[in-house]
Request: fold
Amino acid sequence: NAGVTQTPKFQVLKTGQSMTLQCAQDMNHEYMSWYRQDPGMGLRLIHYSVGAGITDQGEVPNGYNVSRSTTEDFPLRLLSAAPSQTSVYFCASSLRGWDTDTQYFGPGTRLTVL
Amino acid sequence: DQQVKQNSPSLSVQEGRISILNCDYTNSMFDYFLWYKKYPAEGPTFLISISSIKDKNEDGRFTVFLNKSAKHLSLHIVPSQPGDSAVYFCAASVSGGYQKVTFGTGTKLQVIP
Reply:
């Protein structure tokens, strides 16, 4: 199993550009989520999904869109990038999203918005 | 408003000694707590967890203690090894719903050989 994979590893955008961060898992997990990590702050939840076709907002959803058309994939879209979105983004998955389920994280995408 | 706080950004410990990482939380609704370990250029990895019905959970060299009245938890690593050098995140959630985990800011542990 590859676990949770994220692409790209690094990305530089200009303000106003759009892009999609890809996330995939091969563990047949129902629950997937996106976090961002900023200096001096913990990981903050952006969006999550409890299954194909079902998504919901986390703590910091503004400026980001998600969809979940398959169990395996959970892309994160930035429609109009802003410098405030410069961050490291982590995707995670767990079996059902219960507290006792282990969350597996991808290696992260480091995004810089100029 | 940082609901989960790790007030020590870094900690250095000699190999073989005990490492104690601390975490405080303010939200009294939190009842499930976790510790994650993160190496550079990798995602966090789950280490150990504890439910609020317990005050201690042990897994090998790692023990987590929970003091609900003080809203404080700690992670003990005994004995510390150089491979334990990493950033450790404390995290908390409210059970009964989906995993909406609140993370602390992390403590960077350096274990000196």
In short: The mean pLDDT of chain A is 95.
